[in-house]
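User: Let's play a game. I give you a shape written as tokens, and you guess the letters that built it. Ready? Here's round one.
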């Protein structure tokens, strides 16, 4: 009988949990995907790269949303059982309320381990892959570099300016400055190119310039000027300078842990510099500490199982416990930002859920002690 009840409660909870989680993720992903369009419009990456990069950021969203989603799902499940009078049936049949509390707690531990795996392994791995994807991606769309009356320096060492974009796809007064030998086959030193007009090739990987000149500065500072009626500049193989090394969020957990060993200092995202060391501590505390707050949230939601009395405030219990749970989640986000400052702040961050959870569990036992339970 109990196993059947537990299975039913478990199924109902995860139905709400998965529905809310994927609904929130879909909304946030849509918003993020719109922001990521800059990868195509500004940086000139292929649409395929944009889609892959967007999808690889989904685990990051899931990891962030799991604690909040658990809070909503736990409250909705308990309220659903109460609304359908299923809780009353369980209590009158002799089921001890503390058994349901234990079940919710066990579910929270399961979700805690899921988030722990997400935050320590899956999330940094997918973020690192997404960063490598952009870093190794070539510039695909030349038109993204040619914006009217804007100096575009998306490609490192290369600056492009266009005075006017015509409706027929031509560009008026094109200025190109190559200080990094970016344009292979054309630049052997610092090169300045000016053309009265130009247009993009059909494959959108080259720029055709008309009636202009090319000024090259050699190593001995001599200037060579070459005039042309028509020339073609290939942008194939270029990458944007906006792609940097992996951030601390994209660094593997193992690498961050090794960072605390003095032998591994001065590697990327790992040095004795105070700010970098602080960021590494905050990130590792976030990955291992945030999941611990989920069981605490579960126990707070269990207060909704207490017997109802004819008091008006009881109608607002669902809002009260939701606000309390939400405040704890906000508090966890605030304290983790200070956990890298000192050992005391780090201990406070971990001790909040570790100390409060048994206290709240004891309060629940005491609350149910005098109720008609067996």
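Assistant: Ready! My guess for every position:
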């Amino acid at each position: 009988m109990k196993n059947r009840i537990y299975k039913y409660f478990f199924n109902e909870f995860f139905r709400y949990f998965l529905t809310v989680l994927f609904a929130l993720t879909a909304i946030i992903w849509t918003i993020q995907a719109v922001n990521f369009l800059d990868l195509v419009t500004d940086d000139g990456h292929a649409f395929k790269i944009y889609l892959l990069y967007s999808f690889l950021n989904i685990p990051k969203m899931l990891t962030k949303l799991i604690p909040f989603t658990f809070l909503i799902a736990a409250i909705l499940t308990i309220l659903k059982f109460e609304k359908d009078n299923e809780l009353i049936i369980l209590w009158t049949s002799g089921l001890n309320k503390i058994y349901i509390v234990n079940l919710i707690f066990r579910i929270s531990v399961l979700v805690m381990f899921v988030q722990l795996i997400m935050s320590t392994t899956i999330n940094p791995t997918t973020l690192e892959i997404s960063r490598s994807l952009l870093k190794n991606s070539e510039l695909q769309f030349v038109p993204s570099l040619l914006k009217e009356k804007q100096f575009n320096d998306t490609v490192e060492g290369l600056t492009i300016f266009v005075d006017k974009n015509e409706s027929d796809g031509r560009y008026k007064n094109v200025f190109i400055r190559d200080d990094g030998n970016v344009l292979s086959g054309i630049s052997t030193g610092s090169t300045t190119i000016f053309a009265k007009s130009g247009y993009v090739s059909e494959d959108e990987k080259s720029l055709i310039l008309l009636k202009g000149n090319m000024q090259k500065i050699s190593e001995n500072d001599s200037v060579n000027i070459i005039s042309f009626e028509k020339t073609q500049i290939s942008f194939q193989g270029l990458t944007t300078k906006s792609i940097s090394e992996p951030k601390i969020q994209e660094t593997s957990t193992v690498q961050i842990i090794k960072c605390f060993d003095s032998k591994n200092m001065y590697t990327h995202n790992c040095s004795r510099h105070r700010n970098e060391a602080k960021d590494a501590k905050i990130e590792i505390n976030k990955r291992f500490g945030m999941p611990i707050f989920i069981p605490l949230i579960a126990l707070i939601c269990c207060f909704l199982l207490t017997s109802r009395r004819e008091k008006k405030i009881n109608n607002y219990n669902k809002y009260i416990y939701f606000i309390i749970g939400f405040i704890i989640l906000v508090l966890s986000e605030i304290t983790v930002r200070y956990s890298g400052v000192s050992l005391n702040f780090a201990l406070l961050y971990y001790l909040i859920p570790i100390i409060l959870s048994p206290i709240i569990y004891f309060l629940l036992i005491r609350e149910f002690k005098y109720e008609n339970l067996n």
